[in-house]
Amino acid sequence: MRLENGRYRLAVHRRSSWLEAIAGPFAQAVAPDGYPLRFSVVEAAADEIVVEATVVRFADSEPYADRFRSIELLTPRRKTHPASPAAVVQVIPTGIRCEFGGYAGDACPATNLLAAAADLLIAHPNAVNASELNEMASNVLYVEGKSLDDFLLGHVALVPVTANKVGTFIDPTGLEYLDDVLNTLNAARAAKGIDCGLYAVLDEEIGVRIEWSRTGCAAGTVLRPEAILDAVELLIARGAQAAGGVSVIHGVTAEMFARHLAGEIPNPSGGIEAIITHLISKIFRIPTAHAPLPYYQDIKEKSTRNPRASAEFISTPHYFSVLKGLAKAPRIVPAADLWNLPPHFISLNNVIAIVTPASCLGGIPALAAEFNDIPLIAVRENQTILDITNARMRMPNAIEVESYLEAAGVILALREGIALESLRRPLAGPLRVARPAREEAPPVEAAAT
């Protein structure tokens, strides 16, 4: 098994939704020995798109080959009916220098604001993790990005729980920080009551390295992904219901971190952390999240000039936020269909809106929103390095807003059934519709006798 980052130029014919237009050509481009683990549209035109993706290459003889053959993107499911409670999905993609969410936990206040306007708010770790801090509201469901994608494609449902037993895998490259990790586990147990006393040190170094895409997004690779999967399998066999991990991320330079701190480039480690957790989610269908062990001892200047980055400077293992999130993260369960789910399951049917930065409408959450005609609230203020806006994608379900303050108002209106047009001025009058007038057939002349 190996991971590769690639760029794919695809001819597309959009007759209905982007998801239907993209899925087939993209899957064909990575087939037959590839599984698209993570992808996003980075260029879009009327008949051609460019996708940047991380693909798992696997052989038929490998232990997890059967699981990689099932590509959820090819079989998206339709939302069947509206269900209660009303859930909103908050998406803050990592590795693209989001103004909100590009640093440790700086999107958490916006996430909690949206949560206050919804019955449930479903968010992935990047939206709320802040090293030792995780201040997400009590009605936020903490769901890893790959599981969130598959949830929005209708393939899995979420089951809220009271608590999870959390296991931790540790990259042996960072054994000099083992005491810091164990102190974090013990502090979480003693002070927060989290069941997280189980850990495993990987048998070999996994080789986590950053990479950059041609667009400038943070990506990365893992040289020995099987070592991670073996460790998680061991933790599950010992009773773990969720898996967190810490790894040393190689390849970050002092210049990279300084530019990230100045807001010039994405967080170098963001993309590779998503790849690690996406892999675990795909294979094991359990809650998971990751934190970087200190790769920065000699390169990461401590500075107060960017308050959004300050959470990164108050921690060594950056791991307590992961434990707090995983402690009550919902279980991930396969959904055979969306018609007959138990009432306590949260599914695509519960989703009333998806919120995302306005310049990155090329990921699965945005594509799934259009496919199901779910309102897609695109926040302009959360700028990124991408330029995949609705001016390019032309999604009829997109609602562009300036800020998260405005997004919260849209969610309140949707939850209460208030038509958005009634909250804007001028208020247009009703539109009369009618069938086209039928052309009368010419009279038929009587036949000569």
Number of β-strand runs: 17
Q: What value does the Rg take, in angstroms? A: 23 Å
The helix content, as a percent range, equals 25-40%
* Largest β-sheet summary: 6 strands, parallel
Number of helices: 12
Classification by helices and strands: alpha/beta
Query: Order of strands across the biggest sheet?
Result: 6-5-4-15-16-17
Distance between the termini: 85 Å
Q: Give the rounded overall mean pLDDT.
A: 93
* Fraction in beta strands: 15-25%
How many individual domains? 2
Low-confidence stretches: none
User: What is the overall silhouette?
Assistant: globular
Order of helices and strands: EHEEHEHEEHEEHEEEHEHHEHEEHEHEH
Can you summarize this structure?
It is built from twelve helices and 17 strands.
